[in-house]
Write a structure and sequence with these properties.
CATH topology of the largest domain: Beta-Lactamase
Number of strands: 4
Helix content: 40-55%
Protein name: PAS domain-containing protein
Keywords: Membrane, Transmembrane, Transmembrane helix
Distance between the termini: 106 Å
CATH class of the largest domain: Alpha Beta
Shape: rod-shaped
Strand order of the largest sheet: 1-4-3-2
CATH architecture of the largest domain: 2-Layer Sandwich
Number of helices: 4
Length: about 190
Amino acid sequence: APTAQVFYPLFWHVSLFAVVHLIGRMMAVSVRAKLLAADSGKQLTAVRTLLNSICDDVVEIDSGLRLTRHSPKLSSILLHGPASSLQGVALNELMHSEGDRQDFARRMKTGSEAATHADVFHTRLRDSSGTSVAVELFSVPFRDLNDRQGHILGLREFTDIVPLVPLQRELPQTSVPLPGPVVQQLWN
């Protein structure tokens, strides 16, 4: 039985070492995941902040292309009114034409496969009266903490139509006539 006296303590020491090592490894993986999630969250916040500075609205869509939250600005742009929620609506259903829907779906799929790739493109949405609303979309794909694919989209209304009448510059209205050099400076 001398082998049993040596074997059992050795077995328990090795087992205890293995359990402590396993728990330490699990804690390290957990801390790393939390740090990566925090960093990823900061990056998404930076993307949203940047898009908010140049776009009319920033929305998020899931892998089914559905809006994940209510967006009062998008509702207003599409003349639904800010109280009318579009949460859960597939954004491609709001596209003006079948061609726009297909192009949007293709771009979202391509962006999902290349997660480091951002895309900018023009498309047309349909407002509540059926009128086409030209928008520029800035698309940034991402994966959430549960590894689900999504996109952050910046929307900006745009028009490529030249105004029919050029803007007229008017002189400021004053009660005292302005001297010639001041008038010349205002026009230059």
